[in-house]
Amino acid sequence: VQLVESGGGLVQSGGSLRLSCAASGFTLSKYDMSWHRQAPGTKRALVAAITSGGNNTNYADSVKGRFTISRDNAKNTVTLQMNSLKPEDTAVYYCRSRWSTPDLEEIYWGQGTQVTVSS
């Protein structure tokens, strides 16, 4: 069971990056998915989330209008399109899957991918 992020890198301020999260060993379709980020010295924070069916999304205020989360359950992937990047978006970005019932919660994290935005 594994989530693997890709697509991080170095980009100039105002540029774009597209992060992908691929699942192996399990099927993403029943999981709510989210992207989180953690900059040095800060706590990991939610960036964007999407429900299992893809019908609902939510975003941190700091990325609204710039980032878009989407999923392709047939390809077992989740994507974060990041536009108009700012230096303050610099962080390690993590993909997370979550499934829960009243009695059980199942969460998986990826290993993270570094995003660096230069000014």
Mean residue pLDDT? 96
Query: So what's the overall shape?
Result: globular
- State the secondary-structure class: mainly beta
Tell me roughly what share of residues is in helical segments. Answer: under 10%
Strand content: over 45%
Please report the number of helical segments.
0
Query: pLDDT under 50 segments (min length 5)?
Result: none
Oligomer classification: single chain
Task: Give the number of DSSP strands.
Answer: 11
H-E order: EEEEEEEEEEE
Sheet with most strands: 7 strands, mixed
Rounded Rg: 14 Å
Cα separation of the termini: 37 Å
Q: Can you give a write-up of this model?
A:
It is a single chain. The protein is mainly beta and 119 residues long. 0% of the residues lie in helices and 55% in strands. The protein has no helices and eleven strands. The strands form two sheets. Strands 2, 4, 5, 6, 9, 10 and 11 form a seven-stranded mixed beta sheet that branches. A four-stranded antiparallel beta sheet has the order 1-3-8-7, with no helix packed on it. Strand 7 (67-72) and strand 8 form a beta hairpin. The radius of gyration is 14 Å and the shape is globular. The relative contact order is 0.32.
Which helices and strands appear, and what pairs or packs with what?
Elements (H helix, E strand, L loop, with lengths): L1 E5 L2 E4 L4 E8 L7 E7 L6 E6 L6 E3 L7 E6 L4 E6 L8 E10 L4 E5 L3 E6 L1
Parallel strand pairs: 2-11
Antiparallel strand pairs: 1-3, 3-8, 4-5, 4-9, 5-6, 7-8, 9-10, 9-11
